[in-house]
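Lab channel / #folding
Pinned by the channel admin:
"Please post every new chain as: sequence first, then the structure tokens as a reply. Keep commentary short and put observations after the output so the thread stays searchable."

First post following the new format, from NK:
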Amino acid sequence: MSTYIFILGKHPELSIAELESRYPKHKILAKGGDFVVMDLSELIDQKEFDQLGGCIKAAKLAKEVGKEELVSGISDVLFDHYHDVKLDYGLSLYGTSESQLRTFLMKLKKKLRTDGIKSRFINNDFKNISSAQYKSIKRKGIELVILKNGNQFMIAEVVGVQDIDSYSKRDFDKPFRNMQMGMMPPKLAQILINLTGVKGCVWDPFCGSGTLVMEGLLMGRDMIGSDINPKHVEGAKQNVEWLKNNYQLPITNYELFEHDATEDFSGRFDAIAFEGDLGIPHNQFIHPDRLDEIVGDLDQLYIRFFENLKAMKGTAPIVAALPFFKLRDGDEIYLKNTLLAAEELGFKRDLDLKYSREDQAVGRDIYRFQLP
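Reply from TO:
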């Protein structure tokens, strides 16, 4: 077992749920508003971290010390990476005020000079290290995460950082995009897949432009994608071909085809994950009268979908991103009738978390269902 510190994204509860689902044999040692500390049997490196959509960075614990030993402890860890050439390093501080970084960095600089270590810290304006800064030093330097946990400080070596450029490329550079049907962020697609808790084949019955299928293929999963709209299916196929060419992947483990998700499906799969129709563009507030009609139509669609799953007699976990709608007065409307119908059909719900931004009129409710 190794101890890792995960720095969480903008939806911490969702990030922790993703970690718990992907690593079921974990042990949580500590957590705060933007971090969680876990014992894991799995190795976390950059390749593994790239499959986590909800975390910003991960660091492997090297040492735990009291405040008085903190500077010397950091120096010891850095010394293990020193090879008689100038060492670039950065510190990121969590669990306490970032303003203390200046003090730690200046004391550390003096200590390293005394120990004969040629070094340079890259913390701009004595702030935590950004993803871009980490990219600049990961080949010839190191970033350490310093986490205050009670009266102790954990010193951990960063082993994975969110690749913002790659996410952006997959989000904006793929050939087929349809803003009218909503755009699932690649990070969210990864989260949904991980929340299934299975390593087998995943079916996305509302695949749209194929974002979830693409992310699943990058994660090494067998993927099935279907959609009632033939234009979306053709667009998803274009996007998968683009993915294969741009990421040099010999991908063959997928199917994409036209299918109505409310009708019987005979394919074999181990889990279902999807974001369905969100009803309206994300940035448009809708009058409550019009919203009642939109919600009614969506409820009808998803109730028929769950009725179909019930008839199929499958027991695979179902992770769904369903819309909720924000009103100008701050109230929210969600698909209550869908949830009631799923419950009456026998589906058990063990996850209910939100994914949204302040500037969006439509957010996502993340649910996990299963038939016992």
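NK: The mean pLDDT is 92.
TO: also worth noting, Residues 165-370 form a domain with the Rossmann fold fold (CATH 3.40.50.150).
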